[in-house]
Write a structure and sequence with these properties.
The chain has one domain. The protein contains 21 helices and no strands. Helix 10 runs parallel beside helix 19 and helix 10 crosses helix 21. The N and C termini lie far apart (61 Å). It comes from Halobacillus litoralis. Keywords: Membrane, Transmembrane, Transmembrane helix. This is Citrate transporter-like domain-containing protein.
Length: 457
């Protein structure tokens, strides 16, 4: 017992809570929901000391604001536990994501990124477009690993380029491509949260999110061509057999992605599960089946089990953020002060363009001062009824998701920006300045596509 480390076995407790949440989906019981909420409070208490400083501050702010709204409402103490249960499903999704990444590694699809980024490219503008297109294709499943792998490879390919130019190229191509991939990825928590808030159908949202991603790629590829066309690269020799192998592997990868999307759509439309739950419960069975077809089951489990345990044990930041956010959202809805948050939106009633620009500006400003886009998403979730009165659910989903995801390359305390700053030895705010124009323009594209949907819905 002396060697038993409590922090290394938190995944057992969390898994128990997640299982209770699954049971509640099939058996809606108020007592069970209160128990889940009580366990959520325990999770916050356990993880607050383990959370990063930024998330501790966010947690304190959210819980303090929620307490203020609670005092101003007529809600009883007995109802408080249920206020912490709302976002347990999001934590469950975050816990399951490593299984998908593990089957990608077991199938050696991460090496696909190397082969697609390699090759003869005399001009940096061609490499920029290729790098960004590759990120958009693969980051949906590879997630953060796609950014780290591509950055390492690009550092090697651009080793003879001036450091300032090289760093600009890498921060722009990888982070911008990463954000464009997340716009439509069913594994992206911001997209899943926006659908959770609005109740929209993912199948209806998907084509529009693809449109935002395509327009965003066309816009940024043009910018990349203009910025880097004057720089040349040394010609490199490549293995002629690699392109054919890469194409077959890419086709296999995209086929798997399409099948996964079909599974999610089936669970949502036929089984009538909400999108968040559909994605969560589909991940492990799909990844396990995929590993069997690839004849990589043993590697999948060998990679996946320790990765899943580590990821689940280290959910501290998200536990503090999401459960505190759930408390704030519920108390805000019960508080008379909700009216003060509604007033700016009411003032903009009848002006969908102004509402959309207000939402885009809110995401951008909050991100730049260090507030996670999920927290901002939760605030808008608190006034979702008012927003859905002004905008159709599909329109609102596209708007929230695209404006939130657009800020990822410009989030000074975001994980992908932090990893990039360490990799390139850059100040995070230098990376933010490089990508801020992209975040603004991509947010505008989200607004424009959202306006376009008003003609349909």
């Amino acid at each position: 017992m002396r060697n038993f480390r409590f922090a290394e076995h938190l995944y057992i407790f969390y898994s128990f809570v997640f299982i209770l949440n699954v049971i509640h989906v099939f058996w809606s019981n108020s007592i069970l929901y209160s128990v889940i909420g009580c366990l959520g409070i325990v999770m916050i208490v356990m993880n607050f000391p383990r959370a990063d400083r930024v998330f501790k501050i966010l947690g304190i702010v959210l819980l303090s604001a929620g307490s203020f709204f609670f005092i101003s409402s007529d809600v009883t103490i007995a109802e408080v536990p249920t206020f912490f249960a709302g976002n347990i499903g999001m934590l469950f999704l975050l816990s399951m994501l490593p299984w998908m990444n593990s089957v990608v590694k077991a199938g050696r699809y991460n090496k696909l990124l190397h082969s697609l980024l390699g090759g003869n490219k005399k001009g940096m503008e061609g490499l920029y477009i290729r790098s960004e297109a590759t990120m958009i294709s693969l980051a949906a499943f590879l997630n953060l690993s796609s950014a780290t792998i591509s950055q390492d490879l690009l550092k090697d390919q651009l080793k003879n380029v001036k450091t300032k130019v090289r760093n600009s190229f890498i921060t722009m191509a990888t982070l911008r491509g990463y954000s464009l991939a997340l716009l439509w990825s069913p594994l992206e928590i911001l997209l899943a949260t926006s659908i959770f808030i609005t109740g929209a159908n993912y199948l209806e949202v998907l084509p529009w999110m693809f449109l935002v991603a395509i327009l965003g790629f066309a816009m940024d590829a043009s910018i990349g061509r203009m910025l880097f066309r004057k720089y040349n690269l040394e010609e490199e020799k490549t293995d002629e057999t690699k392109p054919a192998q890469s194409k077959r592997r890419l086709v296999s990868f995209i086929t798997a992605l399409v099948l996964f999307l079909l599974v999610v759509v089936f669970l949502g439309n036929v089984m009538n599960f909400n999108f968040l739950f559909s994605v969560t419960i589909a991940i492990f069975p799909f990844a396990f089946t995929w590993s069997i077809l690839l004849k990589r089951r043993r590697s999948f489990l060998k990679i996946g089990w320790p990765t899943w345990k580590k990821q689940t044990n280290n959910l501290s930041n998200f536990i503090v953020l999401l459960l505190a956010l759930s408390f704030l959202t519920e108390t805000l809805n019960a508080s008379p002060y909700l009216k003060f948050l509604q007033d700016p939106l009411v003032a903009l009633e009848g002006n969908p363009i102004l509402i959309m620009l207000f939402i885009q500006a809110a995401f951008l400003v909050m991100t730049l001062i260090g507030v996670h886009p999920l927290a901002t998403m939760g605030i808008f979730g608190g006034v979702s009824e008012l927003l859905m009165g002004a905008l159709p659910s599909v329109t609102l989903t596209i708007l929230l998701a695209s404006c939130a995801i657009a800020t990822i390359p410009s989030a000074p305390y975001g994980l992908v920006v932090t990893l990039t700053s360490v990799s390139l030895r850059m100040n995070p705010y230098q990376i933010v300045l490089k990508n801020l124009p992209h975040s603004i323009l991509l947010g505008f594209l989200g607004v424009l596509v959202s306006l376009l949907t008003l003609l349909v819905y």
